[in-house]
Amino acid sequence: MLTNNVRSKLKQLQWKGNFHRQSFILILLIASIPGLVTGLVIYWFAVEGVESELRSIHNNQIDQRAQNIDEQLKYLEYATSHWAFEPRFGESLGQIDFVKQFTETYDITKTLLLIQGSHALINKVELYIDGDKPVLFHNEYQELDEQSKANYDQTLRSDKKPYWTDYPIGSDSSTKTLAFIHNIPATSKEPFGSIIVSIDRIKALQLLKTLTPYDKGATFILNENNEILLSSNSTKDSSFVGVLQEQIEQHNKTNGSFQFEYQKDNYSISYGQFSRVGSNWTYVSAAPMSSITAPLVIVSRVILVISFTALILAIILSWFTSNRLYTPIQKLLTKLAQNHEGEGWNRKGSDEFTVIEQQWQLLSQKSELLQSRLVEQVGHIKSSFILQLIQGYFYHYTEADLRRRMKKYGWNLEGNSFTALEIQLTGLGESQVRFTNNDESLVTFTASNIMEELGREHFDQFNVLKFSDFSVGVLVIATEGPNLRKDILLYVDEVTKVINEILKLQVTCTISEPTNQIKKVPHIFEEVRSGKRFRLFENSNQVIDLQELEQEESRNNIYYPFAIEKEIIQAIRMGQAEEVENLLMPFMKELTEKGINEINIQQGAVQLYSSIQHEILHSGIHPHHLFEGKNMLEELSHIREPERIIKWFTDDVIRPYIEKVEGRMNIELKRVIERVITRIHDNYMTDISLESCADEVGTNPYSLSKAFKQIVGMNFIDYLTQVRMDKAKELLLQSDMKINDISESVGYRNSYFNRIFKKQMGLPPSQFRKVNQIEKECKAVRDQ
């Protein structure tokens, strides 16, 4: 945190001139004025155009919905007339005894129910027959009394034309609905009955309300006598419909629109005509302008909010930019003040550069302190590097790369060799000090500290490595020669004495041969681990010098390069045939150098073949099938020259196995990729991804992506894009679907689809469709 004094100093540096304030005002004007002017122009000039467009859209909606109502009423007229001309409702209907001929009565009832269910607007369908016994069919057959007969006689008209009329709902004559009446028989001059189709008043009003799709307004239908047939009024003013009716009567046109002000509210009035049987109806829709222009109000508010937000953003950005223009080193000064708690800030007359100089001196002092601490940690870094080296983590590094890294860590490698030592603690059970299994790490840690302390007295460059089996390793880097061997033996002797005295344990020390190559460091550590097998099976201090032991037993014992064998097996597992061939050369070289007799060399080659055969069996391939039944050991026994042995291993053993494994892997990969391709073609329209496909086939996205590229020849996402683009082109050329629908059907959002289609095809989807249509038309003209 900055102190108050330092913060005051920073402010004085920042505001000692007026350039900062002038820059801030200038940038604010540049950033804010264009945005404000643009917002005001949009608000003033675009509002009127948007309002006009909204009115036009509203009138179009009214026309379309009025046409819908007209079509539904026409359907009722046509359906009723169709049934009226049915033979069932002909002259014979007046001669039927409905009591005796109950079957005919039942069929008529079913027919009426069928008519009633043919349209959602129909509330009920009645059949009135005026005979000796007047009857009425609805849900069931009933005979009428004189009063009811008089009511239904009104439905019979001498002009025989079907007509619309007000019809009472049930027994309540005050509530009426629309009904379409068709006299029967339809071809008779003297009808004796009528089919009465009553409209569901609630549904009719709901349909009528679609002409004014707002919370406020009014809609009604007038007959040819300007009488209201249906009316919906949501203005809470019962006189509003009557006033509108008078306004419509004053207009001589059959359809049109105009604005009308009523009680300080402005309404948009639209009206037109329906052609009904024998008459014309007039529909009227009155919608408040506030409801129509509601989207415009929202847009204008959004414009104002965006403009105000742009002004605030301009102020913030202007402050930020002007601050950077005025004080380009202000950030550096603040950081220096934070890091050093304002040291050196209290000098009078100090400017920015004096402050920076003072803080730089403080940073230099602290840098030197950190450098000294870093040197203390170099030992840990070196030990970690050597431990990774002997564990084989740098197997793929070249000798030059390893030398470069060791020099970076501070080792001097010029003219020096590498020698490995391993100290094995023994006699744990016979020790006077009682150790438990949990003391293993403590004992090893103590022994490593002893070896590190004594190593500083004998070697300039060395590293101590703690192992987990009561053993400690040491890598000595020094100039090779007789004196080095003496120093190592002297060091081993001192370590042995101190461990005997302090830990009361015996020591077995194994010393490797020196090597000049860093790549062979893992090998010499492998040798010292293997060399412990020459230890006498007794509890005493022992020193095993592998260099002397090799000279004594080279003629009697077979030498086998186990470390190189491990590298060969690892290269086979990785399918690196060329790397195996390069490793076989040093393998045979070491084998021929160490094993002088031919039988020793032959046994080493047989041992290598056995290890390779074990790896082949472990992979699930039988050597008998791989080598086509050949006796490989017999073939190997007839080869005498090392070069031929290397060629035999490479051509007859390694390459057939690697090719077999790769072929099996390719077949499996092809099957997996075929499943993925099938899934792409079946689900390209969904949100399909590389991760989901990898989960389905049981692998990870990286392996699937690599295999897909190898088999198909292109990336997963490129193939998915190609499939989607091919389908999109097909829909654009062979269908009339909208661009939005096509983008969704191929799995894209509209904006992203337009962008990626243009990137793939060179032009937008709409232009692509238009160009191809023009080409088709030109081709058709040429063919004619």
TrEMBL record:
Gene3D superfamilies the UniProt entry points to: Homeodomain-like (1.10.10.60), PAS domain (3.30.450.20)
Any matching Pfam family: HTH_18
Transmembrane segments: 24-46, 298-320
Domain HTH araC/xylS-type, first and last residues per copy: 674-771
Superkingdom of origin organism: Bacteria
Residues in the signal sequence: none
Keywords annotated in UniProt: DNA-binding, Membrane, Transcription, Transcription regulation, Transmembrane, Transmembrane helix
Segments forming a coiled coil: none
GO molecular function: DNA-binding transcription factor activity; sequence-specific DNA binding
Name under which the protein is recorded: AraC family transcriptional regulator
Species of provenance: Halalkalibacter suaedae
